[in-house]
Amino acid sequence: MEFALVGAPGSDVTLRLDYRAFAYAGKFVLGGPGKAVLRTPDGSPAVPEWEPDEPLSPAVDERALDHDVVAAVSFSPDRTDPDRCRIRYVTVHVARRGEGLGPRLIDRTVDRLASEGYDRVRIAVNNPFAYAALHKCGFAYTGERTGIAELELARTVDSPADDDPDRYRAGLRAFREADRDLDEVEEEFIADRLDGG
In what order do the strands lie in the sheet with 84-92? Predict the structure, then answer.
């Protein structure tokens, strides 16, 4: 698998991800944000044996899809601070989730953002799984919220945020206190990390 910067912010580069395999697939069609991917090095399908649960919409040309993408991220400069970049969306092929590909892609993207001159990166997450994955990448809960039940996480590009267990647990508790219902799997995930250490 190889890392590739597909396009810098403002390059109008798009990705055509299969919406049946990738969350937020429609967000990668927007040309403004920068994009980076993990993909197969030879252009072969990311998951050759994967069979979708539903047929592709007749409005979508399957030949236009980027079948070699395993994981994708979009990012753009922060509107309020030119030294800070904001990660917008991260998505991993449904058949490859749980393999650590999201954190691997984030780590490579943060390295690339450092080489582009950014010194800080922020991201808002809306579920405890993404929260835990970003924590592994050195992001820490800022105590801020955006949108509906989204927690803000941040780090500098040259070093991970302090690994403060109390701050990590505060973010997990924030998901419990948010104005949305957690499903059973999310509740168990949070309980294991709060109650089980």
Answer: 2-7, 34-39, 69-77, 84-92, 120-125, 150-156, 140-146
